Amino acid sequence: MSVTDAVHGSVEARRWEAPEALRQADPELADLLAAEAERRSESLQLLAGENLTSPAVLAALSGPLIDKYAEGYPGRRHHAGCALADAAELLAIDRAKRLFAADHANVQPRSATSAMLATYAALLKPGDVVLAMSLEHGGHLSCGSRANFSGRWFDFIGYGVREQDSLIDLDQVRELAKLHRPKAIIAGGISYPRHIDWEAFREIADEVDAYLIASAAQITGLVAGGMAPSPVPYADVTVAATHKLLRGPRGGMLLCTAELAERVDRAVFPFSQGGAAMNEVAGKAVALAEAATPEFGVYLRRAVDGARSLAGALERAGARPLTGGTDTHLVTADVSPLGVTGVEAERRCSAAGLMLGKCALPYDPAPASESSGIRLGTGAVASQGMGAEELREVGELIGRLLSGGVDARIGERVRELARAFAGR
Ligand SMILES: *Cc1c(COP(=O)(O)O)cnc(C)c1O
To answer: Where in this protein does the record say N6-(pyridoxal phosphate)lysine is found (predicted)?
Structure first.
């Protein structure tokens, strides 16, 4: 099956019907899942981290490796009967190394956050100073939130974006690095819509003798498809996500230099995890193979072109896309010029079937509970076949919702679009 078929098929999977065994054993949950499938098929998923998992990946996820215990690594397992699990993991590792031109890959982290935890464990000691994008400016909570292990165990210093253009201020990064002498610098975040200058971060890290960690979960798929500059040649460790744009199983992945391979592996198992979820490892192998096909590039192109046209339409409607646009699948926009908060924008849009996220902006004057922005991603709708033209219309619909308020015709048009692209 080609990936084009896989994309068709992944949309088929959204018209989900509970298998007989599940309906028999647990009608309550079966109904709940059917209703969720229905909800998804009637709305457009514009949440930045969501996508449609391909049917080949889904098949691997529910395949026989789901029952295999395989603590350790290929050739070094603590359990019997691991030869085929080893082969599956080696496939995933080899494909990851090839796709990202990495010396070493660890495909066992259960999420990007647990991959971050392992990275810290590999490189740092509790109390070390780490320089990362501040949470208010788009850093992930694993980059220093007090509610997360990172903020409790390490001493985080935050850099940010410039107020006038919302771009990362590399002069500030350098200044803070020289002042605080961090043990590691983290480049990357969750809502930054522009390409990151990994080479410049590497230079700064070298100037202060710090490790460079690339927090690249949001853009892993773009890097895989050559649509965003790769951090791999510059970062000591790259933290990746296999869901999001890569369309694989929900999970994390670490790419690193040969020199750090052993430390990274030990930091994942046994330091921060037990046995790997071998069905997820198998699903990652499939996703990594699909990401190497030309069809995957076509889908990424639609995601990026779509995000650009979405940003343009939002701007024409009176919102203010941060950085003036996007290089990626992400759009972060200030909706305060339209007289609504981020919370209100999310509420109106989701009532009309447009699923997007409220987002606190850098220098946001509104309290975090209200926030002034929205964040959108085009991965899922690009997988359904939408591109620049459709996302221009989606941007116009959002603009109408935010400036004019509720209009039943908008929700109707969203459902029409969702149905029209359900079969692509
Ligand atoms: C999505 C994301 C995460 C969190 O991923 P999980 O798998 O939900 O833990 C962390 N960092 C960045 C940059 C992300 O984009």
So the answer is: 244
First-to-last CA distance in the chain?
16
Question: Ligand 1, closest atom to CA 241?
Answer: 7
- Between the CA of 412 and the centroid of ligand 1 the distance, in Å, is 33
Tens digits of pLDDT across the chain (424 residues): 344 444 444 444 456 889 999 999 999 999 999 999 999 999 999 999 999 999 999 999 999 999 999 999 999 999 999 999 999 999 999 999 999 999 999 999 999 999 999 999 999 999 999 999 999 999 999 999 999 999 999 999 999 999 999 999 999 999 999 999 999 999 999 999 999 999 999 999 999 999 999 999 999 999 999 999 999 999 999 999 999 999 999 999 999 999 999 999 999 999 999 999 999 999 999 999 999 999 999 999 999 999 999 999 999 999 999 999 999 999 999 999 999 999 999 999 999 999 999 999 999 999 989 999 999 999 999 999 999 999 999 999 999 999 986 688 999 999 999 999 986 5
Ordered by start, the domain boundaries in the chain are 64-291, 294-421
What is the rounded distance in angstroms from the CA atom of residue 415 to the CA atom of residue 241? 30
Ligand 1 pocket, 353 CB below 6 A? no
Which residue's CA is minimally distant from atom 6 of ligand 1? 112
- Tell me the CA–centroid distance for residue 81 and ligand 1, in Å: 33
CATH class, domain 294-421, is alpha beta
pTM (two decimals)? 0.95
Most ligand 1 atoms within 8 A of CB, residue of 113, 222, 254 to mutate: 113
Q: Is the CB of 142 under 6 A from ligand 1?
A: yes
Task: Check the annotation: does 135 bind a ligand.
Answer: yes
> Which own/partner contact pairs does 219-223 have at CB distance under 8 Å and 24+ positions apart?
219/188, 219/245, 219/328, 220/244, 220/245, 220/246, 220/253, 221/245, 221/246, 221/247, 221/291, 221/296, 221/300, 221/379, 222/300, 222/304, 222/328, 222/329, 223/100
Does ligand 1 have an atom closer than 6 angstroms to the CB of 119? Answer: no
Pick the CATH number of 64-291 from 2.60.290.11, 3.30.450.20, 3.40.109.10, 3.40.640.10: 3.40.640.10
